[in-house]
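Worked example 3 (structure in, sequence out).
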């Protein structure tokens, strides 16, 4: 987790505005009228709750489990296991639901799986005389297995094997295809990405003729701003049925918990927000304009295990002048490369630093704190926040979640009953 500063909104808002203005100017110049009836169009156009808020410009980002849909190489940068759910509410009782799981297996290798399902119902079936025979349903399912590998500290490549199934009334067809992707980090803040989707299919045959999902080329760039609290991303995609489309978006995080997004997606304005909760949970919401109305997207993800840094105080409430004069911070860290240094910081309610522990290499199993500040003076009663940060030899930073510890020297309040004759 990256800590964000509270004044990022003031600095990032001009960036958000400029990004959307640029998209408004650029998109009509290169975009063609998309062919909405192409095979597999629902999968090609699918965007998650966070992705649509960035205008769909995700090929150079792809830093979440579902990101393998647009660039499987993005899985290489994940530090923790991630399970993710996305749902898109479309029109006429049509929706898309998806589950994704990503697992970093080592310093440079990650794998992932994604399952998407499109469901539609209530279509009216008629015969040659236009007589109603009843209703029927239609559905599509896509299953992807992805893998990513980092060949250097800056270059990552990835591939996905996909299976697509389509069913309409009594007809059903299944086809297979593949995606390839790559990302290259020019520096710590600037990354390039490209992917070639639907190589060799999938090809579906519902009745007499074959229908092949068109290949699509995507290329883009993403830039981190404000110590990773801000992001600007742009992308150019090309498919024969579409021509070329430009997508662009921006993101800013406030107080490390609240995310805001604004983008330009398929010639329409899009936006979204996120909220990070405890235990690695994150809620995402995205919305985009459409000629039939607003399309809403919801997402829920959980990051766990993998590479991380954590600290836990025991007891969480202690008294330096009582029977519990110290608290023990249990420290745990798992880094992709060998740990180079660590730091445990303790701050008060106003976020002022009161005590720091640190050293080289991996953190020790535990650190004792007696409730005093850096100069050795006792601190006042109150709730304090502790956070562990660990760096590895490759320059990666692993920041644990903020946790609480309390100093209480007053003791518990008790009530003594008094009887008066």
């Amino acid at each position: 987790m990256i800590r964000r500063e509270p004044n990022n909104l003031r600095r990032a808002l001009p960036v958000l505005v400029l990004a959307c203005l640029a998209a408004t100017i650029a998109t009509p110049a290169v975009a063609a009228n998309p062919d909405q009836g192409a095979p597999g169009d629902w999968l090609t156009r699918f965007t998650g709750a966070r992705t649509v808020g960035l205008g769909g410009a995700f090929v150079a980002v792809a830093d979440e489990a579902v990101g393998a849909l647009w660039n499987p190489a993005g899985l290489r940068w994940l530090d923790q296991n991630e399970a993710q759910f996305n749902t898109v509410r479309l029109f006429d009782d049509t929706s898309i639901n998806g589950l994704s799981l990503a697992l970093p297996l080592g310093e440079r290798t990650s794998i992932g799986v994604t399952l998407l399902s499109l469901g539609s119902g209530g279509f009216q079936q008629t015969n040659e005389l236009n007589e109603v025979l009843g209703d029927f349903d239609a559905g599509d399912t896509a299953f992807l297995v992805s893998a990513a590998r980092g060949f250097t500290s800056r270059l990552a490549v990835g591939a996905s094997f996909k299976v697509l199934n389509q069913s309409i009334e009594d007809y059903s067809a299944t086809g297979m295809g593949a995606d390839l992707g790559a990302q290259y980090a020019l520096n710590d803040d600037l990354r390039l990405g490209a992917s070639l989707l639907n190589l060799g299919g999938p090809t579906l045959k519902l009745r007499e003729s074959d229908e092949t999902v068109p290949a699509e080329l995507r290329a883009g760039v993403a830039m981190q701003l404000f110590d990773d609290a801000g992001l600007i991303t742009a992308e150019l995609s090309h498919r024969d049925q579409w021509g070329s489309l430009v997508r662009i978006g921006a993101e800013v995080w406030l107080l490390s918990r609240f995310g805001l997004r604004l983008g330009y997606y398929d010639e329409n304005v899009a936006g979204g927000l996120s909220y990070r909760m405890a235990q690695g949970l994150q809620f995402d919401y995205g919305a985009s304009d459409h000629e039939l109305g607003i399309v809403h997207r919801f997402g829920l993800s959980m990051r766990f295990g993998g590479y991380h840094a954590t600290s836990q105080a025991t007891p969480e409430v202690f008294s330096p002048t009582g029977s519990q004069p110290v608290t023990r911070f249990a420290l745990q860290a798992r880094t992709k490369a060998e740990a180079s240094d660590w730091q445990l910081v303790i701050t008060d309610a106003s976020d002022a630093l009161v005590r720091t522990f640190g050293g080289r290499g991996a953190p020790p199993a535990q650190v004792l704190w007696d409730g005093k500040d850096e100069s050795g003076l006792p601190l006042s009663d109150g709730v304090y926040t502790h956070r562990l940060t660990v760096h590895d030899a490759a320059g990666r930073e692993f920041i644990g979640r903020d946790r609480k510890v309390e100093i209480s020297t007053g003791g518990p309040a008790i009530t003594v009953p008094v009887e008066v004759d």
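Notes: The chain has three helices and 25 strands. The domain at 8-304 is CATH 2.40.160.60 (Porin).
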